[in-house]
């Protein structure tokens, strides 16, 4: 039996003084999956991502990530938050931002080991941002910023990469390039992506789940894990 890398069983969750977001949710994610979470705004997609990351705790049920409590799995998770625009005013270079991804790996105050420097460079190369390494963040386009945030997450050598609306505020061409990158990275890393665009994610994901509060919690699409069989 294949053990899931994320296992969600009978999970319910509510915010304080709010209606229930989820009730009795079950979901298994396997190593190598490219899972897309779709659904309407306010349906709970980001909340589910935060539960997997251990940033929120379920009211009921069990969540296991890499056979650990979510908050103990953190060093093996890479997280790319929504809205790359929030890094616009940071007075640091691309390389310095990507170096932040090594903080969970023992690096402190940017005293980087040779191993840290190798992983940072590999993350830059993998995301096609190595030629931007010495630029300031303010000089980057929206698509470049998103690639840099992905590089920061990759620098931690995650087993699972979780992304919240990675193509928000990007034009169609830039958004497709980001998904092309994620598909390539999926060859080595399990991918969990929040998106609102079913048409786009259906070209890339091997599993798509609709998140709409307590409704429609079921896989909408299962495809082969063979990348050659996906429509990209």
Automatic annotation (TrEMBL):
Q: Does the keyword Isomerase apply?
A: no
Task: List residues of the ABC transporter domain.
Answer: 6-232
Pfam families per UniProt: ABC_tran
User: Which controlled-vocabulary keywords does the entry list?
Assistant: ATP-binding, Nucleotide-binding, Transport
Q: Name one GO molecular function term.
A: ATP binding
Keyword Transport among record annotations: yes
Q: Which family does it belong to?
A: Belongs to the ABC transporter superfamily.
What is the protein named?
A: ABC transporter ATP-binding protein
Its lineage opens with: Bacteria, Pseudomonadati, Pseudomonadota, Gammaproteobacteria, Oceanospirillales
């Amino acid at each position: 039996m294949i053990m899931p890398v994320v296992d969600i069983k009978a999970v319910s969750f509510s915010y304080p003084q709010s209606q229930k977001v989820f009730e009795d949710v079950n979901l298994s994610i396997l190593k190598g999956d490219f899972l897309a979470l779709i659904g309407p705004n306010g349906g709970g997609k980001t909340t589910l991502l935060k539960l997997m990351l251990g940033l929120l705790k379920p009211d009921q049920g069990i969540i296991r990530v890499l056979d650990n409590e979510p908050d103990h799995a953190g060093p093996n998770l890479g997280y790319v938050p929504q809205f790359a625009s929030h890094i616009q005013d940071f007075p640091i270079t691309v390389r310095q931002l990507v170096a932040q991804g090594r903080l969970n790996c023992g690096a402190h105050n940017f005293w980087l080991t040779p191993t840290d420097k190798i992983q940072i460079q590999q993350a830059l190369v993998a995301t096609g941002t190595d030629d931007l390494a010495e630029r300031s963040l303010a000089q980057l386009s929206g698509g470049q910023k998103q690639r840099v945030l992905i590089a920061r997450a990759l620098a931690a050598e995650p087993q699972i990469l979780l992304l919240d609306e990675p193509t928000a505020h990007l034009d169609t061409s830039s958004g497709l390039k980001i998904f092309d990158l994620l598909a390539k990275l999926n060859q080595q890393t399990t991918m969990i992506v929040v998106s609102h665009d079913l048409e786009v994610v259906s070209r890339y994901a091997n599993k798509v789940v609709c998140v709409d509060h307590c409704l429609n919690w079921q896989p909408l699409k299962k495809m082969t894990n063979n990348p050659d069989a996906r429509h990209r």
